[in-house]
Design a protein that fits this description.
By secondary structure, the protein is of the alpha/beta class. It contains 14 helices and 12 strands. The strands form 3 sheets. The protein has a 7-stranded mixed beta sheet, sandwiched between helices. α5 packs parallel to α11 and α6 packs across α10. It is globular and about 60 Å long.
């Protein structure tokens, strides 16, 4: 018999993917250059030359087994050591290779982190607006995701709601900063307050409440924005990272779990990740990709275009009367729709070939997400369609 829970999911497909598929199909009709597709968070800037050069040189210099064989179950030791040293150098930490587990992107990292600290029935709290895939990530592990409603004034953490929801069943808190979909970066004050609450509640409930920090947009932070390294402020932090956005390599599926060495049993937790892999099939990410990222840990693609695109859109949206909190990073902007029904708003926008995503599934009904990881020239051309849509409908 087929698994019913996955059959049920067929009726709840990702709205992001559905709208992206619509945009592609529409592009075949009128030319994709004429479709202003703000749906998918797919990095638009070229991969750094140094990364491609690493791949070419590795093929020439390393053996076929080194590049294409299975890596160790926790990842290649030299790569893990390089990741640890990079984190220490950049953020003043003291990781060792024994705190690093290589994963298949941030999704693979989260799959391990959630199973590392929960058993079926435990609760994981996250904060709206949030990435919708957190639902299946957590719930399919047997744990239960609970969503704290947003503070729509700032999109920092709604602490009043959070403190009313945290309880003895809470085993982990899952945060995403810089945030998809809001583009907001949690401030040092926000992270310190969160850490203080988790410290108090861990003592009250008699067990550690872990902080799982999902950080694929860590490097995409705009000028002057306060962007703390989360693990520096809470010992029981499990950092989940992907190189997809920083190096523009989402298809290479590479990231890591970094367990704060100050966390009790930190080194055992890393080894446990290798055992979790046996049950979920996320084991041994590509060896050649591990080697290549290890040579490019402290660089990024030219991500400056994202801030440029954000400024263009922010100015246009505010000029047209949208309420929007200025993003501090990522390549997303999160305005309030001009009517209560964001789905209806986005359907109307489609008629102008301006494709955006309603945020109901992000835990923020009435808002929309624009993923502006597209060419700046196209962002500028899209403004005429946006203005015409708004003036003719609102």
């Amino acid at each position: 018999m087929l698994a019913q829970k996955y059959i049920d999911m067929l009726g709840r497909k990702s709205v992001i993917r559905e709208l992206s598929e619509y945009a592609v199909a529409r592009g075949k009709e009128i030319g994709y250059e004429n479709v202003f597709d703000y749906t998918l968070g797919n990095p638009s800037v070229p991969v750094p030359d140094s990364y491609n050069n690493s791949l070419k040189r590795l093929i020439d210099e390393k053996s076929s087994m080194d590049l294409h064989g299975y890596s160790q179950s926790l990842g290649i030791r030299e790569v893990r050591d390089a990741v640890a040293r990079s984190l220490n150098r950049r953020f003043g930490m003291n990781y060792t290779l024994d705190n690093i587990f290589m994963s298949s992107g941030a999704a693979g990292a989260l799959a391990h982190a959630i199973r590392l600290v929960t058993v079926p029935g435990d609760e994981v709290l996250t904060f709206a607006p949030y990435f919708p895939e957190y639902g299946p990530y957590v719930n399919h592990s047997g744990a239960v995701l609970k969503v704290v409603p947003p503070d729509t004034e700032t999109f920092q953490i709604n602490f009043e709601a959070f403190e009313s929801m945290i309880n003895e069943k809470t085993m982990a808190v899952l945060i995403n900063t810089p945030n998809n979909p809001s583009g907001i970066v949690y401030s040092t004050a926000t992270i310190k307050r969160l850490a203080s609450i988790l410290t108090v509640k861990s003592k009250e409930y008699g067990h550690i409440i872990y902080l799982i920090s999902d950080e694929p947009y860590r490097e995409i932070v705009f000028k002057g924005v306060d962007a703390p390294f989360v693990a520096k402020h809470y010992d029981a932090t499990i950092t989940c990272y992907s190189f997809s956005k920083s190096l523009s390599i989402p298809g290479d599926r590479i990231g890591y779990v970094a367990i704060n060495p100050a966390c009790p049993d930190a080194e055992m937790m890393t080894v446990m990740c290798g055992q979790i892999s046996r049950g979920i099939g996320h084991n041994c990410p590509s060896a050649i990709i591990q080697w290549a990222v290890s040579e490019n840990l402290d660089i990024t693609a030219d991500i400056s275009v994202y801030e440029k695109n954000m400024n263009i859109l922010y100015d246009a949206l505010t000029d047209l009367g949208f309420t929007v909190v200025r993003p501090g990073g990522t390549f997303y902007i999160f305005p309030k729709a001009l009517e209560d029904d964001a789905v209806a708003f986005c359907n109307k926008a489609k008629e102008y070939d301006f494709i955006c995503v309603p945020a109901d599934s992000f835990g923020a009904p009435g808002y929309i997400r624009l993923a502006y990881c597209i060419e700046t020239e196209k962002v500028e051309r899209s403004l005429e369609a946006l203005e015409r849509f708004v003036k003719e409908n609102y």
